[in-house]
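Write out the 3D structure for:
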Amino acid sequence: MSLLDRLKAQIAQDGPISVAEYFTRCLHDPRDGYYANRPALGADGDFLTAPGVSQMFGELLGLWLLETWDRMGRPAPVRLVEIGPGDGTLMSDILRAARLMPEFLAAADLWLVEVSPPLRAAQAGRLGGAPLAPRWADRLEAVPAGAPLLLVANEVLDCLPARQFVRTEAGWAERMVGLDDQGQLAFGLRALNPKAVPLPREGGGSPVGTVIESSPAQAALGSEIGHRAARDGGAALLIDYGRDAPEPGDTLQAVQAHAKVSPLAQPGQADLTVWADFPAVLAAAREAGAGTGPILSQGDFLRALGIEARAQVLAAARPDQAQTVARQLDRLTGADQMGDLFKVACLHAPGLSPPLFELLPVADA
């Protein structure tokens, strides 16, 4: 039976499931889940992430990590960790930049947190000649403790499930996935006690039709990273598309071959995502004892790191590629591209002042 058939059978027997449960099944079902079997990244796949746009992205993140390590006092050992490393392109570019500081490479051990067997194979191939040999873990807690960490997670929060709640005339209801009269998957609503719903932070006076999302999984990751940084030291860089302030909205989407499709059409065949809730993630990290900085736009972050100067160097080295480099720069930093939609946040050990995130005070969410 396909995942679609198994979901239909489960719902017919046990009743509707939450959007969060459906999301998790579609991405991580061991037999038919998207990431378990058929993740398709890159221009020829289903979606393109920043590392696939240009090497500049990963190189600049590598420089940020080197500077942060220097501000940490150059500890040895230090855990270099990437959660959700995709096909390994980002870490490959980070390590290219890290060659500028051989003492960092001598101090670091590399850990990739990845659950997808196909992606692990791709990462092993991409990093076969890298200056650090990767080791893999299924989850962050499996990465050995006892040493400071430098962690990167690019487009990871959006892959974590969220519950959805809708304001109706009768009160708040949770959006569920059930079956319609023809036995096909369909969205529906299940009434809830208002006290059981994470109401918008501005209050409960939302108009009928308002959708809010709550992702305990995103907050849990923020808490886990924050606890690790507070206990062992270090810093984490989280990059994703999402909110820098609490607000309502339905952000669930499915992407296949770079086009949006119905989230219910082909379970396990398309990538499902929701927006990252950065305020909730940072609040969870602070509760775990970590420090946090302001939420920056990706465009501002990369420009502050010198991406425009790096683009000029690349264009000068390959004049025939100058227009391509210019398009890549616009894709990464343009306000109508990834520049404003994508945000960058930093979690760090108390007392550490990571580059760029020490510039502005952060207000409690």
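The first strand starts at residue 17 and ends at 18.
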